[in-house]
Amino acid sequence: MPMYPYHCPKCDKDFDVEMRPTEVGKRTVECPSCHEKKVTRVYTGFFAKTSRKA
Ligand SMILES: [Zn+2]
Question: What distance in angstroms lies between residue 47's CA and the mean position of ligand 1's atoms?
Fold first, then answer.
């Protein structure tokens, strides 16, 4: 499954969330550090980086 980068504005921390492409934008993402739910998705390019080779 691809990893999507997110940024938490509350604790200023970047983290990756593993989810299916169809879940992006629908699933509630929570910061692993402070459990903030209003996190920002980081756009690094057209394709999301993957945790392993396809
Ligand atoms: Zn946070």
Answer: 24
Q: Could you tell me how far CA 43 lies from the centroid of its own chain?
A: 9
Give the global pTM.
Answer: 0.75
C-alpha of residue 12 to centroid of ligand 1, in Å: 6
Range of the structural domain that residue 32 is part of:
3-41
In a domain, 50, yes or no: no
In a domain, 48, yes or no: no
Find residue 8's DSSP bridge partners: 13
Q: What is the pLDDT of residues 1-54, one digit of tens each?
A: 899 999 999 999 999 999 998 998 899 999 999 999 999 999 876 555 666 655
Q: Is residue 18 part of a domain?
A: yes
